[in-house]
């Protein structure tokens, strides 16, 4: 069976199957991340689709649908809310389409605050229509298989969108992933270890200093260099992990990854990062990146929430300019 298809549902109550895509068009400034997840033991699937529009502005959408236990039913029906994703060729080509309502938000950082505390007019209702083709540039790199599977691929994304009465086209680079198996979102089991964004970590009060328990990243430096992976907080407070890296036609393990972060004063929104590690060829790499826009997404749990802060960033590696997503996970108690 192709891992592009749905897998048999496991016994874990937090079992999930999900599809994720992102891209950044360095010339136009447009970017996107979209995630569709199926949680059969909860009885629903949801879809988060966000478009970066330049500066701090985003178009934000979210939808849900009821689902049954047999996920193979949805192999040809990957539709939630206004989002539809379609596999046109396994591991090679996908299509992402959205048509529906969106929140046009001038400053995505407002999403870190309670909805009741946001200023009047913090978003404008809008109609978003978007068509994107994701064509992979690398073979899938597996971080896990079997009952806990996860793979990622680099790709080129082309297409167009309209928001309100304005139409724009894009041609960018990004990363996709597919995962299946137990996935406990942040606050479900406080204190559990995490190395891949699937379990929870230490909780913070809203007044505490930033202390993410997972940092996930994907970056593209042209069509011949890309990388991705995840890191977790160690007992010493250092964010360490591993991932994958494409160097030309070769894709291999990215090891000894350490991420250091600078935050916007008084917030858990990251402003810049430094990533170091060892490439598949054994050379040491250092990547410096600055976020253009951080879009917080909130996953409530009793007494608080996990914030998955998705930062569109510009990065430098060996003098080469690149773009991508730096994602930081924080638990906040209220």
Q: Can you describe this structure?
A:
It is a single chain. A hairpin with a 4-residue loop joins strand 13 (214-220) and strand 14. The protein has strands at 15-24, 31-39, 44-54, 57-66, 79-80, 83-89, 93-105, 123-136, 141-144, 149-163, 166-182, 203-205, 214-220, 225-233, 239-247, 250-263, 270-278, 284-301, 304-317, 320-333. With 334 residues, the chain is mainly β. It has no helices and 20 strands. It has two domains: 15-180, Beta Barrel (AttH-like fold); 189-333, AttH-like fold. The protein has an eight-stranded antiparallel beta barrel. Strands 13-14-15-16-17-18-19-20 form an eight-stranded antiparallel β-barrel. Helices cover 0% and strands 63% of the residues. Mean pLDDT is 93; it is low at 187-207.
Furnish the topology, listing elements before pairings:
Elements: E1 15-24, E2 31-39, E3 44-54, E4 57-66, E5 79-80, E6 83-89, E7 93-105, E8 123-136, E9 141-144, E10 149-163, E11 166-182, E12 203-205, E13 214-220, E14 225-233, E15 239-247, E16 250-263, E17 270-278, E18 284-301, E19 304-317, E20 320-333
Parallel strand pairs: 12-20
Antiparallel strand pairs: 1-2, 1-11, 2-3, 3-4, 4-7, 5-6, 6-7, 7-8, 8-10, 9-10, 10-11, 13-14, 13-20, 14-15, 15-16, 16-17, 17-18, 18-19, 19-20
């Amino acid at each position: 069976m192709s891992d592009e298809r749905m897998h048999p549902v496991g016994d874990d109550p937090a079992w999930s199957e999900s599809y994720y895509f992102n891209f950044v068009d360095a010339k136009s400034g447009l970017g996107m991340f979209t995630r569709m997840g199926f949680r059969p033991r909860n009885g629903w699937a949801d879809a988060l689709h966000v478009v970066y529009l330049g500066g701090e502005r985003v178009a934000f959408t979210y939808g849900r649908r009821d689902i049954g236990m047999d996920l193979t039913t949805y192999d040809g029906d990957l539709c939630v809310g206004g989002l539809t994703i379609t596999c046109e060729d396994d591991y090679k080509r996908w299509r992402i389409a959205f048509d529906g309502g969106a929140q046009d938000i001038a400053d995505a950082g407002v999403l870190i605050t309670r909805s009741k505390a946001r200023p009047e007019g913090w978003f404008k209702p809008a109609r978003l229509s978007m068509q994107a083709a994701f064509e992979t540039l690398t073979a899938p790199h597996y971080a896990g298989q079997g009952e806990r599977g996860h793979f990622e691929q680099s790709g080129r994304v082309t297409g167009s969108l309209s928001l309100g009465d304005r139409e724009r086209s894009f041609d960018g680079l990004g990363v996709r992933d597919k995962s299946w198996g137990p996935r406990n979102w942040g606050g479900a089991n406080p204190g559990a270890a995490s190395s891949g964004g699937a379990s929870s970590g230490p909780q913070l009060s809203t007044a505490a200093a930033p202390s993410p328990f997972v940092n996930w990243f994907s970056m593209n430096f042209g069509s011949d260099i890309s990388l991705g992976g995840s890191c977790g907080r160690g007992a010493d407070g250092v964010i360490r992990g591993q991932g994958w890296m494409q160097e030309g036609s070769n894709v291999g393990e990215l090891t000894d990854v350490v991420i250091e972060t600078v935050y916007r004063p008084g917030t858990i929104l990251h402003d810049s990062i430094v990533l170091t590690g060892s490439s598949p060829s054994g050379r040491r790499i250092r990547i410096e990146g600055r976020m253009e826009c951080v879009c917080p997404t909130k996953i409530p749990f009793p007494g608080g929430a996990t914030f998955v802060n998705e930062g569109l960033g510009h990065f430098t590696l060996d003098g080469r300019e690149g773009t991508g997503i730096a994602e930081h996970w924080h638990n906040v108690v209220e």
